Amino acid sequence: MIVEFKDVKYVYNENRPNETVAINGINLEINRGDFIGLIGHTGSGKSTLIQLINGLYKPSFGDVITYSINTKEKGDKLKTIRQKVGMVFQYPEHQLFEETVFLDIAFGPKNMGLDKDEIEARVKDAMNLVGLDYESLKDKSPFNLSGGQKRRVAIAGVLAMHPHLLILDEPTAGLDPRGREEILGYIKKLHDDLGITIILVTHSMEEASELANRILVVKDGKILLDDKPIKVFENE
Ligand code: ADP
Ligand code: ADP
């Protein structure tokens, strides 16, 4: 087990008039090798849930244990979690800010204090994993790339940190059907070929059941369903 939620609640603006219970009593175990499709309507609690996993948010009640570390811990322990859990936020291409594709993808590994050769090897490897040609793209400005390429640069930046658990929040949002298929294909390969545990946040049941081996449906801050894709369809 790599992530455990124990009776977790998360409340925004606690004790204020605009108090919102975003996560309302979740018990959950995520195992190595899972490919989870996390589904729910807007406002159901998906974003809050994934940010509880890597300690960006701390539970208001209960505990989240990620890679054997309670996310309420501070300092170095939290750093370990951040390195093992890679997070690709919605529209990650908005967070590209370096001058070249190389520098953008190298940003994380540099922060990890890796040496030059290791950084270069990781950038090459990460670009290869998402189908970006290293030689022709490394010196380009990320701003001049196509929408799908920008998104893949952002994903490569997270992959270069060698996450063991990769969480992607709506990675295909705003892409055309071809861009969608491409990204989903690469994500599937990360799971199947490298054994990276994946959480794919989506509001498309079709997308989730096509790829995931476990579907989690969230509603009003609770887990409504946790099952294999086929069972979820039977229950619809
Ligand atoms: P989803 O990702 O499924 O759209 P969220 O986790 O973003 O759901 O939201 C869950 C609930 O928490 C919603 O009612 C939402 O309005 C509320 N919420 C989310 N973020 C904030 C915030 N920063 N401040 C206050 N309420 C928030
Ligand atoms: P690391 O030094 O990167 O932590 P480990 O051998 O401990 O190496 O872990 C390998 C794990 O890292 C794999 O199981 C996989 O989940 C993950 N991983 C992430 N990105 C890559 C990558 N580009 N190449 C190989 N493994 C990767």
TrEMBL record:
GO MF term (any one): ATP binding
Recorded E.C. number(s)?
7.-.-.-
PROSITE patterns given in the database record: ABC_TRANSPORTER_1, ABC_TRANSPORTER_2
Query: Which InterPro entries does this UniProt record tie to the protein?
Result: AAA+_ATPase, ABC_transporter-like_ATP-bd, ABC_transporter-like_CS, ABC_transpr_CbiO/EcfA_su, ECF_ABC_transporter_ATP-bd, EcfA2, P-loop_NTPase
Q: Would the keyword Transport be found if you checked this record's keyword annotation?
A: yes
GO CC terms: ATP-binding cassette (ABC) transporter complex
Q: Indicate the enzyme's highest-level EC class.
A: translocase
**How does the protein's chain sit in the membrane according to the entry?**
Peripheral membrane protein
Cellular compartments annotated: Cell membrane
Give the UniProt keywords, A-Z: ATP-binding, Cell membrane, Membrane, Nucleotide-binding, Translocase, Transport
Which SMART domains does UniProt cross-reference here?
AAA (SM00382)
Domain ABC transporter intervals:
3-236
Where does the source fall among the domains of life?
Answer: Bacteria
Which PANTHER family does this UniProt record tie to the protein?
ENERGY-COUPLING FACTOR TRANSPORTER ATP-BINDING PROTEIN ECFA2, HEAVY METAL TRANSPORTER
The family annotation for this protein states: Belongs to the ABC transporter superfamily. Energy-coupling factor EcfA family.
Subunit structure, briefly? Forms a stable energy-coupling factor (ECF) transporter complex composed of 2 membrane-embedded substrate-binding proteins (S component), 2 ATP-binding proteins (A component) and 2 transmembrane proteins (T component).
Q: What does this protein do?
A: ATP-binding (A) component of a common energy-coupling factor (ECF) ABC-transporter complex.
Specify the protein name. Answer: Energy-coupling factor transporter ATP-binding protein EcfA2
